[in-house]
Write the structure tokens for this entry.
Amino acid sequence: MRLSCVVRIANHFCLAFEMMLPRPGCVPKVSEGWSAEYEAMLDFLQNGHAASALLVLRQADLSTTTSKFSFENYVALLSNASPRVDMKFMLCLMSELEKLVSFEGIQSAVYFARFSRWLVQELLAECATKFQQWDRSPDSAMDAQDGHASSMRVEKGQRELDLNLKGCLTSSRSFMNGDSVFITFPPTAAIGPHSLDAVVQSVWGPDRDGDEYCLVVKLAVTDSNHVLSDVEGKTCRVDKVLSKATFRCQINALQYLCTPGNQMGPFNDIFLNSMHSPTGQEAELCKEQIAEGTFSDLRDSQMWLNESQQKAASAAVTQRLTLIQGPPGTGKTHCAVAVVQSLVGLKLRMNLTSKTEDSCSILACSGSNVAADNLLNGFVKEGIEARRIGNRVRKDLQTHSVEFIAKQQLGLRPGIRKLRKFEKELLTDCSVVCATNVGAANGMLEKMSFDTILMDEAAQATEPITLIPIVRAGVRRVILVGDHKQLPPTVLSNRADGAGFSQSLFERLIAMEVRPYVLSIQYRMHPAIASYPSKAFYDGRIHTGIKSKHRQPPKGFQWPSTKFPIAFCPVFGTEEKRGNSYVNLAEGVKVESVLQDLLQPGDLQQHHIGIISPYTSQVLNIKQHVQAITKGRRDGPVEVASIDGFQGREKEVIIVSTTRANREGNLGFVKDIRRMNVTLTRAKRGIIVVGHEATLQSDTKGWGKWLQWIRSQTFSSRQHSRKRAAGW
């Protein structure tokens, strides 16, 4: 059958509801013999028609395609597929293409097939979640969302498929380069198959165009002239679907690792080959010495480290790959800063102060902007010359931001070449570059070499995200800092999660018998608060380095004992389902009462208190109660957030609303032992858990054991108090 006939048939049967993404400006060179099929499949996937692309592949005459389908072209198909493709057909297409792709070896084939499949599933799950949010949100809520512009005027752009959308945005950061967006006419219409699919190319602020923002987007349409003539001059609404840039960064990282001659050396065996056929030598490769001495010999500063921190720091400085496990409050950021300071000093002592044009010693990364800023803040305090790339930098750290410095020095409208040259000079003149994991794929760093990669929050990142900063030429040392006993990576796709996508590289290496260096002394919590988490989650290995007199329980609340600032407040309400979330009105009332008790004596200011719940709907419910009693106060807000949003954070007192209350004893993800660990380890001076006792008791491995423990401790405290009162 002729290819043109196949294309017509495929067009006839394509899925009408799927949409498309634009083709990038540069398309890889196509293997001879696959040119027509590749172009057809690329067009169909950009238009969201995975079924049609699959039909093209199945109708290809394999007897005439003597060459293998190139790895580069396969990556291009995945990178440019619309997030609206049908998952079933897309995964089927991937399975059939994998048999034809010219992988270098079985290790590369297995590794890339596994993770690329999970990434596609996750991308489509993210898109589906966004559509569900839109379906549930009223127009007023959508108008208030970031990544939404309700009235934009359409003008023709400079390039063939470009549109300039002009109007008001809440912020220039509402949309970012690489965002996938839907353009809907008229602005009041619902998002649907009639919405145009596009990708953001750039965002111009009011300083570039009078008093309006300009959003430059590239359309994904076959007949662009017809579309442009229909929409030019009209008013539209723009809605952000997702950022495809993160997906492409991960696919590109996988491609780099799975490409022969990648200059990754032993890291190929540690990361890549171990997925298919682990040899048991991976742990030895990680421990291999790449520098002599110990941390004590190498460090220049007076930063004090305890014994467990010193052991971890020594390994990090001298080994090829080191895992540093930092349980709550054990000072993992402090330890990471000390390691970096030692490495900077080591380079100076080895007379390596002369740098090549594109070199820098260390790339320090994390999964979130908050954690990246925390690292930067630690470096700055110790006098380490560090620069931060990325847009969302803390205000007090902006003087160390490459973007901020460039604007200060060059003004708001420097030429692109002048700007890039200046940014490059800033980065090569510093000792440490700080970025998020995805930000490490920034073009500014593309041609720079780094000797050391340090990553914080490594146990919260999926493996492809972890690879983004690491897979580059010249890397000799990798330091992963995290705690696999706390929250795992967030994975939306149930299929990918069940298959293993939520296992971080940090956790996978531990499963391969790479021994983590555990920081074993915590300095955050009252000794009584730290007692149960140490026993339940860390086999009793975490000790306390702070005395109870420095963590006195706050006044106002009736604690079981001054030596035991932990309380459980039973509430006999019931849960209510709100969409995919839950709310418990009775617990909201109880939390309000507890908060009033804590604030009344004046021992605590509002910002000393955190209130957490596993469910978003309960967070919103509690916020209403909090606003009712704190209105008019000027001592900072009481922070109310989800448990997931509080990892890495701490407050003087934490109030927990567990929310779930039902006859079946169903706790959902509340019984996740890692989430429970985070819940119980945020408080410094006191923790109060509000919940339905019978429902919590049904979790015999987690919350049930905690309730049993707190009863025994409360009883012991009361017995001790009675003996003291009786003069024993």
The longest strand covers residues 148-156. The longest helix spans residues 106-136.
